[in-house]
């Protein structure tokens, strides 16, 4: 997995085996982990919501029980009067004067004080008696004031004060020991009170109950509902008690939750943003409701979600590290196999791989090693055979060049001997010996460019004897290229063809150029003459003959077979040795001259050649 992705020759995106293996591991890991995480998170969130609802329900029940206890405690105060069997006897004695005074002082006042002093709440008890012979005892509080602000106290009135009141007229029929009503009467709503209403009856005969009075015990709602604290169910929450018609009687907590917040107003709450739980207060018939913001619930569920996500990510991270290690282990083995196959594809069959252990990779490695060894052996055999064949072809082509040149030179020597020009004949023979000494080059087919130019210079010296001042040859060679190697005898045949076929008049000028072509990374030679040139048809004829190019062969040979023979020979030898990208090309125009271009690759020569020719110098010969 050193390279995440590369592009093969086909152009399609290539993903290494290790990456595919790692991705498959991740898919097989991530999907189950997050699926199980999602299921576990859903179960946990639902469980949390159920637990929260259970806790809220339990809290509401505790609040409800606390309220019920306080109301029952207040009712027990009324029981002290309701179930007192001595009360009816005294209250039904309609005797004025001393009897009524004694009853009030000895019985009623102590009894009423006992009741009010027994309460843990602030209460105001009003007793209405049917016996008008008993005196009324009460405090005259100013209009608009709350009597309960004076603390626990009681008042004694005659029953006729309330007989015309609607709340008394609508009071339900008496059921022994059970008829108790909690209701806001008179100014209770104004001062935030609620009253326990109950008859006083003659209990001596339960089957025939006679009303002898009425009890009203008023307490503050805030004291009855003291346990109604929104802080018990969470921040931003509210506890509300609503009466008949959904009107709010009491609330604790976030008052902004209410759209109508005045006491006694109808409850209107945006339930879309809150979770609501309800409990009924049986004694009052009112509803106790808890409103918990969804944001509070969501905040806790977000913590659960975050915890689940962290656990999933940690699990994915840990298992991914393990998966990466496993995939890297196998990808390294596959990468070695791919590396060997790529080297085989490039022609290098020396690469070998070895694995520890005894598995499929070991078998693959052994098979590839054996395949590489056998292929390398076969290639070596084929290579040696082709090399010998190539060398034979080069030697054959080389042998074809030398006799052709030798024939022309011997013809020139013969003419010199015929005309008695012994000195020139001697000089030409010496130059011919030098030429062949350089041409033999100890049997080497590839020589340095320096030696190739030196050999061409030896040929020019031979022809200089023959033509004298009628010919002029100029070398323009880049000194940097003389250290590289070339197939021998690539310049001399073109100079020879120019001297044989390109004369126009009695003079000829030949220029030999050698330079480095940085664009293609090759060496380019050009043999340029100002001779007679060739027609386009002749150039195409030479190009179509398979030579690929020709040079300065404007003249005609003695036969069709010998036309451009030396040019084709050089082109074939270059292509045979260096490949089809290199060779000879020709450009010519009649009456102007010809230009031969020879292209060969840059091949450094041996150190021995460099030391031998460290003083290379290429000049001008004319």
Automatic annotation (TrEMBL):
Residues 541-564, 603-622 are annotated as: Disordered. Residues 606-622 have a biased composition (Basic and acidic residues). It is found in: Cell membrane. GO terms for molecular function: kinase activity. Residues 548-559 have a biased composition (Low complexity). SMART domains: HAMP (SM00304), HATPase_c (SM00387). Pfam families: HAMP (PF00672), HATPase_c (PF02518), His_kinase (PF06580). InterPro entries: Bact_2-comp_sensor_kinase, HAMP_dom, HATPase_C_sf, HATPase_dom, Sig_transdc_His_kin_internal. Its main location: membrane. The chain crosses the membrane at residues 21-40, 306-326. Keywords: Cell membrane, Kinase, Membrane, Phosphoprotein, Transferase, Transmembrane, Transmembrane helix. It is a multi-pass membrane protein. It comes from the Bacteria. Residues 328-380 form the HAMP domain. This is Sensor histidine kinase YesM.
């Amino acid at each position: 997995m050193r390279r995440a992705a590369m592009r093969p020759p086909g152009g399609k995106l290539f993903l290494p085996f290790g990456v595919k293996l790692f991705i498959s591991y991740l898919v097989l890991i991530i999907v189950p982990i997050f699926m199980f995480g999602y299921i576990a998170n859903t179960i946990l969130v639902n469980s949390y919501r159920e637990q929260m609802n259970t806790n809220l329900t339990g809290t509401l029940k505790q609040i409800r029980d606390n309220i019920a206890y306080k109301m029952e405690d207040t009712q027990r105060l009324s029981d002290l009067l309701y179930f007192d069997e001595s009360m009816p006897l005294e209250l039904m004695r309609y005797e004025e004067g001393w009897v009524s005074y004694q009853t009030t002082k000895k019985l009623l006042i102590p009894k009423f004080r006992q009741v009010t002093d027994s309460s843990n709440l602030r209460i105001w008890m009003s007793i209405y008696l049917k016996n008008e012979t008993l005196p009324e005892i009460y405090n005259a509080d100013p209009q608009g004031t709350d009597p309960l602000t004076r603390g626990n106290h009681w008042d004694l009135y005659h029953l006729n004060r309330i007989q015309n009141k609607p709340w008394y007229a609508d009071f339900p029929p008496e059921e022994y020991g059970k008829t108790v009503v909690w209701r806001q009467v008179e100014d209770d709503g104004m001062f935030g009170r609620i009253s326990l209403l109950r008859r006083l009856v003659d209990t001596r005969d339960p089957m025939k109950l006679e009303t002898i009075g009425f009890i009203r015990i008023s307490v503050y709602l805030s004291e009855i509902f003291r346990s109604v604290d929104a802080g018990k169910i969470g921040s931003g929450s509210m506890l509300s008690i609503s009466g008949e018609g959904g009107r709010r009687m009491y609330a604790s907590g976030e008052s902004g939750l209410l759209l109508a917040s005045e006491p006694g107003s109808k409850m209107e709450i945006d339930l879309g943003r809150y979770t609501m739980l309800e409990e009924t207060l049986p004694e009052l018939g009112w509803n106790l409701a808890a409103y918990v913001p969804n944001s509070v619930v969501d905040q806790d569920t977000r913590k659960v979600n975050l915890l689940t996500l962290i656990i999933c990510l940690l699990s994915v991270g840990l298992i991914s590290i393990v998966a990466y290690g496993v995939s890297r282990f196998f990808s390294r083995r596959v990468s070695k196999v791919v590396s060997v196959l790529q080297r085989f594809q490039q022609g290098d069959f020396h690469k070998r791989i070895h694995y520890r252990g005894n598995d499929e990779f070991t078998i693959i490695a052994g098979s590839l090693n054996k395949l590489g060894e056998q292929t390398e052996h076969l290639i070596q055999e084929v290579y040696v055979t082709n090399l010998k064949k190539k060398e034979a072809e080069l030697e054959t082509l080389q042998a074809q060049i030398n006799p052709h040149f030798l024939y022309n030179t011997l013809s020139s020597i013969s003419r010199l001997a015929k005309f008695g020009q012994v000195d020139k004949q001697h000089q030409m023979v010496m130059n011919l010996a030098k030429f062949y000494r350089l041409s033999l080059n100890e049997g080497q087919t590839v020589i340095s460019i320096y030696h190739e130019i030196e050999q061409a210079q030896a040929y020019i010296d031979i022809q200089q004897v023959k033509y004298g001042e009628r010919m002029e040859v100029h070398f323009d060679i880049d000194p940097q290229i003389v250290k590289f190697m070339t197939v021998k005898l690539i310049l001399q045949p073109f100079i020879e063809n120019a001297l044989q076929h390109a004369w126009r008049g009695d003079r000829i000028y030949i220029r030999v150029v050698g330079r480095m072509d940085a664009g293609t990374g090759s060496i380019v030679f050009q043999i340029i003459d100002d001779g007679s040139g060739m027609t386009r048809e002749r150039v195409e004829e030479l190009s179509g003959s398979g030579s690929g190019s020709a040079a300065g062969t404007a003249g005609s040979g003695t036969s069709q077979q010998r036309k451009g023979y030396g040019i084709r020979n050089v082109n074939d030898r270059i292509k045979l040795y260096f490949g089809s990208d290199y060779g000879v090309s020709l450009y010519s125009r009649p009456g102007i001259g010809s230009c031969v271009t020879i292209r060969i690759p840059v091949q450094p020569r041996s150190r021995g050649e460099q030391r031998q020719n460290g003083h290379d110098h290429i000049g001008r010969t004319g």
